Amino acid sequence: MVGYLVLENGEIFEGERIGVTKDTVCEVVFNTSMVGYIETFTDPSYLGQGIVMTYPLIGNYGVMPEDYESDKIYAKAIFVHEVADFESNFRSKSNLEKFLRDYKIPGLSGINTRKLTRMLRDAGTMKGYLTSNIDNIDDIMQKIKEYKIENPVEYVTCRQAKTYGKGKSKKVAVLDCGVKHNLINSLLKRDVEVTVFPATAEPEQILNLRPNGILISNGPGNPMDYKKQIKTIQKLYDSKIPMFGVALGHQLIAIAKGAKTEKLKYGHRGPNHPVKDLKKDRVHITSQNHGYYVSEDSLDKSVVEISHVSLNDNTVEGLRYKDNKVFTIQFYPEDADYIYDEFLKMM
Amino acid sequence: MPKYKSIKKVLVIGSGPIIIGQAAEFDYAGTQACRELKKEGLEVVLINSNPATIMTDKNMADKIYIEPLTVETVKKIIEIEKPDSILPNLGGQTGLNLAMELEEAGFLKQMNVKLLGTGVDGIRNAEDRQCFKDMMEAINEPCIASKVVHTVEDAVEFTKEIGLPVIIRPAYTLGGTGGGIAYTMEELEEIAGSGIRMSRVNEILVEKCITGWKEIEFEVMRDRKGNAIAICSMENIDPVGVHTGDSIVVAPAQTLSNVEYTMLKNSAMKIIEALKIEGGCNVQFALHPTSFEYAVIEVNPRVSRSSALASKATGYPIAKVSSKIALGYTLDEIKNEVTGKTFACFEPTIDYVVVKVPKWPFKKFLTANRTLGTQMKATGEVMAIAPNLEAGLMKAIRSLEENVEYLRLDSLARLEKNDIEEKLRQVDNERLFVIAEAIRKEISVERISELTTIDRFFIGAIYKLIKMEKELEFNQMNSKMLEKAKKLGFTDKIIAKISGKTEDEIRKLREKFGIKANFKLVDTCAAEFEAQTPYYYSSYDDECESKPSNKKKVMVLGSGPIRIGQGIEFDYCSVHGVWALKKQGYETIIVNNNPETVSTDFDIADKLYFEPLTREDVENIVNTEKPDGAIVQFGGQTAIKLTKALTEMGVKILGTQEVDMDRAEDRKEFDEALSNCGILRPKGSTIFTVEEAKMVANKLGYPVLVRPSYVLGGQGMAIAYDDREIETYVNEINTIEQEHPILVDKYILGREVEVDAICDGDDILIPGIMEHLERAGVHSGDSISVYPTQNVTLDQEEKIIEYTEKIAKELNIIGILNIQFIISEGEVYIIEVNPRSSRTVPYISKVTNLPMIDVATNVILGKKLKDLGYGTGLYKKSDYICVKMPVFSFEKIKNADTSLGPEMKSTGEVLGVSKKFENAVLKAFIGSGANVSKKGAILITVRDKDKAEVVPIAERFKAKGFDIYATSGTAKYLKENGVESIVIEKLWEGRNSIIDLIEFGKINFVVNTPTKGKQSNRDGFKIRRMAVECKIPCFTSLDTAWALYKAIETGIEEKNLKPVDITKI
Known about the structure:
- The complex is a heterodimer of chains A (347) and B (1065).
- With 347 residues, chain A is of the alpha/beta class.
- Chain A contains 10 helices and 19 strands.
- Chain A has 2 domains: 2-148, Glucose Oxidase, domain 1, CATH 3.50.30.20; 153-346, Rossmann fold (3-Layer(aba) Sandwich).
- Chain A has helices spanning 37-41, 96-102, 113-123, 137-146, 152-156, 181-189, 203-208, 227-238, 248-256, 338-346, and strands spanning 2-7, 12-19, 24-31, 49-53, 57-58, 77-79, 82-83, 106-109, 126-131, 162-164, 171-176, 193-198, 213-216, 243-246, 261-277, 282-294, 304-310, 316-321, 326-329.
- In chain A, strands 10-12-11-13-14-19-18-17-15-16 form a 10-stranded mixed β-sheet, with helices on both faces.
- In chain A, strand 1 and strand 2 form a beta hairpin.
- In chain A, helix 8 (227-238) crosses helix 9 (248-256).
- The longest helix of chain A is centred in the last third of the chain and has 12 residues, at 227-238.
- Chain B is an alpha/beta fold.
- Among the domains of chain B are: 9-122, Rossmann fold (3-Layer(aba) Sandwich), CATH 3.40.50; 146-208, Dna Ligase, domain 1, CATH 3.30.1490; 382-518, Carbamoyl Phosphate Synthetase, Chain A, domain 4; 548-654, 3-Layer(aba) Sandwich (Rossmann fold), CATH 3.40.50.20; 683-747, ATP-grasp fold, A domain (Dna Ligase, domain 1, 2-Layer Sandwich); 931-1056, Methylglyoxal synthase-like domain (Rossmann fold, 3-Layer(aba) Sandwich), CATH 3.40.50.
- Helices cover 37% and strands 19% of the residues of chain B.
- The chains are: A alpha/beta (347), B alpha/beta (1065).
- The interface between A and B is large, with 45 and 54 residues.
């Protein structure tokens, strides 16, 4: 079945529909990973977004639920060049088409993803509409115009607090703004008890746990929309408990301490972002997924110092707070494992 | 300025002659390195024995030694040049081994030479088997479990520990005979038992068998600070069991989930950190297909064939960045030249699929065993870039130039389903085609995957191609279907053939439907950043990223994969053509598909199109670029073949025109041209059938030379001595469909002389005349060639110059040409004119100091030789004598016949340079890897007609103190003529059998001239194979044996040979 992606600049990409055939409006972003589509699609930070995969063959190794980063696909739509017909991996339980259908996600295949990526790179992230019918283009353009990712945290946070790895000597509280499984698993691997709190949790609730450390998680959307969480973070910060922020968490802590965030033209999304650790004078290749960044000019340098920068565009990738045991990173710590150890050392 | 301020003068070691397993990739790496070092303002000293390379060019280094790559010679050069450092990791295994030997001997320390890049310990830990095992154990990375044992009991014990199946490898048996894979304990006892018996030292290696596991490679890079990146992952379609050089390889890895990918990547990172690698490094893994179990197969602490592939696959200049790291730079200080903005410290991500397919030499070696295993057999490779795997495969297949454009071989199509199923179990060069045929015969993807152990994902790609064939065959053609076929990589020609239409009809349909090729950019970053690289591949997606300029532009066609007969020399010519054009202010466009070459570096031409060299693929580029002209005479036969097509597309051929090229190839017209000039050539005629051939041969009188028209490297060429041989050879040629008649010529036994020349229409320029040491009958590429000539009289020389000028003008040559002469009984004949650059162009350019391609390009662009500063006629002779010696890879190809004849068999060449002929020959022999001993024994066994001639050779060697061994017939003849020899009665059994003598190193050289026919069951064939496998020089031409005698006659030792800096010639 033929489907179309209509972009807010009026460009139309024609392809073959995959997944469910509903219409959907989304923010269109691209991801440059050559492997890891399962982890990408299930990353809650993609809430409200349609993902363009720049690698042309997607679905090669099928689908294995144990690799999900959350309980489902959070992306709103998937745009690919080609879906593998003969997926192959000994762990695979499903295939891409079924995966999308299981979570009621629509998508398009057979589109020129490179052209689309170049367009997003040059014009910046755009909104788009996925449909099978483009007869009423004005209507579609109106829907695109009205689209906004509102209160994203509501969709991605857990409903109630939950504790993993009970009984360990050290406790970490996680403020769940859409936390990836990988973050929790990485902590559990280090022998700590992890309690995940809904993003709406009151600071007292978290402090009552008497955690040794607090992690502010990754998550979707514009950090400025997280008004309540920013207030919570301010209180948590004042408690002097060691705190670690990842991705959105990094931005929220910065805002809580008076900094500002701005939108990147087309985001950092992919597994190959070089980040320089200024203190160690070492570069790490990191996985990233963010559309906003903490503006360097807005930082109060008396309280905070820059610990990491992007080697690609020099944006802030990590901060260290001088008045408290707090540090944050903009990238996913998966490939820079030592960061967890640093967090643990602070506790 | 390098980061390490102490570096001022660097010695770079090249990789030597092209052999199977070590090809042009090191010219690419070495050239990138030299350019980078020069850019840093360093003085560069280069040693490489291979004269055909770009890296040995005068503008590449300050001092260039084309000398044998031996410890002895490198030591001498270090003593002369006193470099402060040495760059060892860009010259393949050869370069690395040499550097390590010098280091271990304490010589580098003694001479104060610093080893750049990865440290000695790191190299040793990666290279030494035991050190490597220990290191992997220390960092907890799994290796392939193995153990040396001497009894069956120990073999059983160890196998119980590691589990079945296991591979048994007996120590010291020829070609690994007596080994095998044991799947059961019974088999183990049997194989281990026989292996121990067959081994000379009763020793076997028991190794865990990982055949059938996925073979994954990571190309990684690390700097001195410890910053490390993974540049590219690669997956071999052929699982473990087939050498990666013989495997079809795709990039990036396709069937790994993020978990396996990360696991292996982290392992590679851990390993290079432990080895403290500084520069590029390759890590090979075996991954169990249904678990997370893996093993590190091998680590190469240097640039390699895989890094060349990874470099071209991603656009990341690995050799260049490696050199910078060796000079002390760190990855975050080196700019990414592709984007111009970001740094080299990032991991490329690609948005296309890369497919590499090996090019095998089996057409040259009809008797050879075509089975693929752990010994690499391919001479070269092609790479294709496409948006999907299917199109990548299709592009790669047509890039091979095997006259096959899709996955179908008639020989397989004729087979029954059962036979195909049986063939699926065999692993040989036709594997891909067997799988395709299996799908056509409706064997399921699962079953094929089971029988071949190839992942179903890859079989699936072939399935999609066959399904498309069926659609084309049975369905009505429409725009959707045509577009789909094009996206899957089908050419118009094949679509036409399958759908029963003409190629022209398909082209018109495409025009009507608006289906056309568009070019996409290779940019290392999947379009995330704007890129500066002009590196393109075709796709059938919309939007063309290649924006043609309105500058004057010329297209240069490359020479495709390295093969016997068309090697690195043509890449040398293409690259120099590009440089010359650039100098003249033209925009240059290069088209090629060989990932190992310099020409496919993105900073050589202004635009690089990585595409197959077929009519349709080239036409797509022409339609986009609309070049003002094309140069075909530099790219070997590959480019020449496209002349007609280009002319028809309306592209102006610069230099010699198509009709004149044809006149050089077409028998009748060529005869006419020669007779117009009053030049003699051997009499002959064209034929189609065996009967005609016999008639012609009898009229001319035997022996005659038989060959197909339009070939390179003498493919299918042979000398026939009687009717029976004519029959064999003509039938052999006719197994491949011939568009053109077969040529039968009188074979003239004489001295062969070769000339490369440039003609501007009015004048000619000959850099030098070369003489072959072997008389006519041995292909020029396999002959030892000497410049300047040693046995050509002044009269003959004048004749050669006169003939060259006459025929060049007669054929309206503009640019370069190559002529083969025969001098027999004082008469000069022309046997061949090639209206293009040749194998000898790089070498003759270097030794005469006349940059032939630069001059030829200027002439092609309309300049006159008179104005170019090198004069006309024959250029001044050098004071040095230069001997070019062929190098063979026979030991790599089981059952290949090693006897030399009119069909070329060598894979590469070395040069020996000296003021004395004997010393130049000696250098060349040493450079070619021959163990030139001054005493010992020589085995002589020759056919009857050579017996008289071999007597003086035997006499001389005997006089030098050599023992002479001979087979009974030869011995008898020698005795009758006064030369005593030790007779070998029994060829194959017992003491003093040939096996015994050769295997136990009692023989230093073998002289064997082949008897008639090419059968592999003859004794001569077996003796030659035996010699080759024991690395004993075996001469099949008496002239070569004479040359060797000359080389050792003077008794000069290698250490007394003076290295010559060819920039000073």
